[in-house]
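Quick one, T. Sequence first:
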Amino acid sequence: MKISVIGCGYLGAVHAAAMADLGHDVVGVDVDPDKVAALGRGHAPFFEPGLGELLTAGLERGRLAFSADLEGARGSAVHFVAVGTPQNENGSADLRYVRAAFDALLPILAPGDVVVGKSTVPVGTAAELALQVESAGASLVWNPEFLREGHAIRDTLEPDRLVYGVRVGDSGSVELLDEVYRELLAAGSPRIVTDFATAELVKVAANAFLATKISFINAMAEIAEVAGADVTQLADAIGRDPRIGRRFLNAGLGFGGGCLPKDIRGFIARAEELGVGQSVGFLREVDAINLRRRERAVDLARDAVGGDLAGKRIAILGLAFKPDSDDVRDSPALDVARRLQVEGASVVATDPHAVETARRLAPELAYGSEVVAVVEGADAVLLLTEWREYQELDPAALGALVATRVIIDGRNCLDVARWQDAGWRYLALGRTATPASTRELVPA
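Structure tokens:
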């Protein structure tokens, strides 16, 4: 089937490559000619494991192409819209790119075409856009995405659910989208066919729930620190309850990136517009707890170096908001690094893939490509993104390089005993009252 994907950012580029992998003939369209040129060479403009290989395979088989001209999408039976919905100053979703994409599509739509919305939009948007699409004889399906950065290809090709929001009785659009996803459905991916509003709510409701679960355990971390408890063991214990589960109960710096923070704020804004803001009022505290974790990490660093960060060399390991990504949008790690710099610390940061993206947002920081150079002479080391290579570092070898052996584990991902045995003072969010915090600073 011939398919177009409008918008080739993170979501669109992954979706286009995955649809080509399923055997469809796909054209990805984007207004940025540099991005189009890079994708046409098989180069993703962002880091996502396996995407380069998937792009190259699609291009070499002739199943995948990219264009800056929307005319290339003419004749496609299905048009996926995957443009961004950034956040307005009041927290609401900025729909200008979505509306522009639909306006541009109208002249090339043919009767019987199906437009499939992938972008995350406020509830009520699809019903409005459907009228526009239907005026051209086409139909609309809202098909929200549930991608996790670092796992986007698997989440597209092995989804845990497919949601279709359609007009009541629109069996033709359902059948056509079923054909697009035929292999996924045959492999057992569940399919839920519902109305527009429910499909729009599924994405933001899921993200709101995940954000709430993360902030819950971080609220428990605040209590654990004062009470002398260990939040990691607490999470292990309550996570044994099958009604709760252990996933997303990892206390630490909290969530960031381009989805969860934006989506919960947009959800709040839309609920207020609908007159039911009280229904999601708790999400304001979810957001507040999340931001407090960053402040607490700075507090730990300040206390660890004697109460004053001015002139102290602080090594930062990790800048991306999560591992297996170079995304620093609303990154807790980058935020902490910048806060330390504001307090007078000499901050040197590194990340396996996010140094350049961080440098564009925070040029005032110093960066390094190698852990060894970054930690040399450090008064404290902060691990802020749980990259596997950082979890596997040799604490004894690093101990020979730093000025003071103090490590702040912002993600509760290190082997505590291993670092303590190497002479490090170990500090972590929600665990600072453990024996590690009672050790004296050990000179390198």
